[in-house]
From TrEMBL, chains A, B:
Homodimer. This is Glutamate decarboxylase like 1. The keyword Aminoacyl-tRNA synthetase does not apply. It comes from Anas platyrhynchos platyrhynchos. SUPFAM superfamilies: PLP-dependent transferases. InterPro entries: PyrdxlP-dep_de-COase (IPR002129), PyrdxlP-dep_Trfase (IPR015424), PyrdxlP-dep_Trfase_major (IPR015421), Pyridoxal-P_BS (IPR021115). Keywords: Decarboxylase, Lyase, Pyridoxal phosphate.
């Protein structure tokens, strides 16, 4: 046989077949031509049904069905024999039809902001290549890209140097930081665990993301040892309250080790006063972690980066480009100011089968041992390609636009009867009440709120019903 | 204005522009036609350069470059202004060229096994839709799919019922299990943490995956409290040794709570004797977790499922369809026998902004609070579409084929001079030495191994050099 022999030739030469345990080893595994054709046809559907309709306000956000109904519509059952390509393509159509179009201009749920073509292409590339970023030999390009992106993010934070790792999200990043702060506080915990130690205590605001509680319980610290600090009327942590709680913890004989400030809270979009919090951390020798999962993107904007004033004093930062910057779920980095190898020391398990120290290249590029994962997706790459495409200026415009839209919405709310603004937003979150005409004259009190709640619940279900009807709005939806 | 107004019309009507903070709010965010064209052109490159070449043995596995050289070739720097589409497409080409083709028939690194067109299409769909599976209202289809897939996996484990959650990988699944076992052992740990408790101890084999150590340190248990149980000459945990260690731990006054058996170890592919281990767990009231990240796929094969005999007695199982079954990184489920809501009780944080209890549909479909993540990828979907396409029989053939190939390789090794089989494999891992002619007559001893190691290191670097040359092999490579 010669080089480049094609599949048809192989089939004709079946007499050379190597049969082991009933399997013909040297036959083609599947018909790759048919497989490629299937991919091509599916891509056409994706192009037409998702991508081309992504920004189209006249399309539906979602063809809503209740769980039991949707189960009947979709043929979910997996069977012994496979389905035809035709049936599979129909299934793909159905999946798309009944899924929420999260990039739709009228999709207002949870920190989404539309579609980005560049990060999407990057994601298609990595799905096709299916890499895992543990070692340079398996992921040369993606490890270099991750290093570059992390350096750039560190620059925007304002550190001279640092370290970092992309991981499955803001929640996991907060866990990384908590464990790292604990390791810095007492490196022995890695080997000995927490059992004989005093009670470790960490501080975060009442308005923090719920991942703080999840992290504290997962890491064996316990949710009761998260001391929630009071916030002011705008949702910002009150530094004096933090000081008090640190002192209380010390008096109790527990071991304070970490303050988690939030830059951009999930519901109100509030930014904790980082500079004043950093003063307290310095005074008490506490690690300062900033959860900038949502607010970190403001660092890109010269107009809005002052929201995170003082962030350069943090020891670690979680920053989620998959939220406002549209890098696609999942894309999040934990960034660390320390550049002396703390991250690696804290996380390494030194697996000999993967991280040999005597390879023929510089093994400092084998960053996988900084991670809690083994297989790891190249999430930095989609942020990188998007950044290359738009430039820093383009990303900046994206942030400025989101905040300008929020500002516009606030002005509209103020002008319109029946709308009540909850508070002047700092960021892209706009919190307001809609008071229906029947309640506008009612006195504020428990009965009023009960009624309002009932009506809003009802409208939510109505709204989902409406999703199925074509939108007839007269101008482009405000995206935030 | 009317419904369906197109972008060009919008531009002409710029006099209606709404300007806030220097941003025109009602203009198009970007030229979506150009964006779509970019996606189309990039898809063509992906199709030609990755997918069509995926199975082609005459193509290169990787165009290897050392880190410093590759940095010079790729234009990694992100700048203030963006790049042209033409430049970006060239970048995409370069990224592909210098990346490892993990689906190549001659790519033998780390638990990969080729390309699957169906899971790939599923991944393209979810990247385009960019969902997050926390609540039914945001991910109706993907939550139902996850439920179906988990049910099916549970069936193959042999449980009557159960629960589960897809998460970023086998390492994270092992962490989930460890935390869950701990919660079952002492639910108070969730709130109180570990500080005032006796030392928790868990048991796993010497041949276990390194994620066990990572999990123990991350969860505050401490790596020293992982008791590594001796294995036999085939790499299997020795039950008598486990029994001894559990007794030792009890004598020390520590608190044994968990045994992590491995079904398919990373290096040797060994299966721990689950039935005997389950007996010991029952006797001592210990949680049995089976790390079947790698070996779980054998459950699909009627011929090979006996490797996991006794797995139905486990309390939890980690199973990674992104390894042998080719579902694409990341795709892994933690499966739990308990069906009384243990998973939810252990992990929930009850965030009010996301998991309201008075929605207008059955909120038991809002499974996000079982997770340590907030945003979560719909990883079950790619496994589902692949399963729909191939049927159980097709998946079974994939497993049977992998094991038949391993068997074939073993026979070839035995026949050829200079090759030394380390042990008869149970699974797809084949461990052997190649002894170069110069060493074949040398006596076994430290000097021999030192020399052999040096030569193999050198050959590894040579092999990477060779990757860049066209392969001239005479038959299809053996994939495993
Ligand atoms: C402030 C904040 N931190 C953390 C997170 C969690 O990020 P992820 O969803 O990537 O886990 C969120 C998500 O909404 C958030 O708003
Ligand atoms: C036995 C075993 N467990 C766990 C893992 C980790 O899986 P993941 O890479 O998905 O974290 C591996 C990976 O190689 C493994 O072989």
């Amino acid at each position: 046989m010669e080089v480049g022999i094609c599949k048809q030739d192989m089939l004709q030469k079946k007499k050379n077949a190597v049969l082991v345990d009933g399997v013909i080893l040297n036959g083609p595994i599947m018909d790759s031509k048919a497989g490629e054709k299937f991919v091509e046809e599916a891509c056409k559907i994706i192009m037409e049904e998702v991508i081309q309709k992504a920004n189209d306000v006249t399309e539906k956000v979602c063809e809503w069905r209740a769980p039991e109904t949707l189960k009947k519509i979709l043929d979910l059952e997996m069977r012994d024999t496979g389905e035809s390509h035709q049936k599979l393509l129909q299934l793909c159509q159905d999946v798309i039809q009944y899924s929420v179009k999260t990039s739709h201009p009228r999709f207002f749920n949870q920190l989404y902001a539309g579609i980005d073509y560049y990060s999407l292409v990057a994601r298609f590339i990595t799905e096709a290549l299916n890499p895992s970023v543990y070692t340079y030999e398996v992921s040369p390009v993606f490890l270099l890209v991750e290093e570059t992106v992390i350096k750039k993010m560190i620059e925007f934070i304002g550190w001279e140097e640092g370290d970092g790792i992309f991981n499955p999200g803001g929640s996991v990043s907060n866990m990384y930081a908590m464990n790292l702060a604990r390791y810095k506080f007492c490196p022995e915990i890695k080997e000995k665990g927490l059992s004989s130690l005093p009670r470790l205590v960490l501080f975060t605001s009442e308005e923090c993301h719920y991942s703080m509680k999840k992290a504290a319980s997962f890491l064996g610290i316990g949710t009761e040892n998260v001391y929630f600090i009071k916030t002011d009327e705008r949702g910002k942590m009150i530094p004096e309250e933090l000081e008090k709680q640190v002192q209380r913890a010390r008096k109790e004989g527990s071991a304070p080790f970490l303050v988690c400030a939030t830059a951009g809270t999930t519901v109100l979009g509030a930014f904790d006063p980082l500079d004043e919090i950093a003063d307290i951390c310095e005074k008490h020798g506490l690690w300062l972690h900033v959860d900038a999962s949502w607010g970190g993107s403001a660092l890109i904007s010269r107009k809005h980066c002052r929201l995170l004033h003082g962030i350069h004093r943090a020891d670690s930062v979680a920053w989620n480009p998959h939220k406002m910057l549209l890098a696609g779920i999942q894309c999040c980095a934990l960034l660390v100011k320390d550049n002396s190898g703390l991250l690696k020391k804290c996380y390494s398990a030194k697996a000999a089968y993967l991280f040999q120290q005597d390879k023929f290249y510089d093994v400092s590029y084998d960053t996988g041992d900084k991670s809690i994962q083994c297989s790891r997706r190249p999430d930095a790459f989609k942020f990188w390609l998007m950044w290359k495409a738009l430039g820093t200026t383009g990303l900046e415009e994206r942030v400025n636009r989101a905040l300008a839209l929020a500002r516009y919405l606030v002005e509209e709310i103020k002008k319109r009867e029946g709308f009540q603004l909850l508070l002047e937003p700092e960021y892209a979150n706009v919190c307001f009440w809609y008071i229906p005409p029947s309640l506008r004259k009612m006195e504020d009190g428990p009965e009023f709120w009960q009624k309002l709640h009932e009506i809003l619940q009802f409208s939510a279900s109505q709204a989902f019903g409406l999703c199925s009807a074509r939108s007839e709005s007269h101008d482009e939806a405000v995206q935030f």
